[in-house]
Write a structure and sequence with these properties.
This protein is of the alpha+beta class. It has 3 helices and 4 strands, in the order βββαβαα. The protein has a two-stranded antiparallel sheet. A two-stranded antiparallel sheet has the order 3-4.
């Protein structure tokens, strides 16, 4: 419900409870809540470094070509380029590390998120 008074838009797409999105051995280090910002919004430059901005909304006048700061994953597109056919119907970013390990002949640990992506031959 947080609205940008200038743009008259909602700035936050969703807020996720850590119990619903995090798991594994580092669970206790996860934040209690994860804020997913709408397209066109992000946390401030100050807050990414642990500071607090004096204003709730400010225009970004710096170059902003992309970042990893709090955009909602449901609206964050990605492109996977691969030199082998991907035979899986769905893949996730979480599958990349286990896939790389498997290609190197290393069995991914059971605590690792994701699964090796089945790949065809070239």
């Amino acid at each position: 419900g947080l609205r940008d008074p200038t743009a008259k838009r909602t700035a936050v797409k969703a807020v996720y409870d850590r119990d619903e999105i995090y798991f594994g051995p580092a669970f206790d280090e996860a934040p209690d809540l994860q804020v997913g910002m709408e397209t066109g919004y992000r946390v401030s430059w100050q807050s990414t470094l642990g500071g607090i901005s004096p204003d709730l909304f400010t225009d970004n006048v710096r170059k902003w070509s992309g970042d990893h700061c709090s955009l909602d994953t449901a609206i964050t597109p990605g492109i996977l380029l691969c030199n082998r056919p991907i035979t899986a119907e769905q893949v996730s970013l979480l599958d990349l590390a286990p896939t790389v390990l498997s290609l190197l002949g290393i069995h991914p640990p059971s605590s690792m998120d994701g699964r090796p992506i089945p790949l065809g031959t070239t």
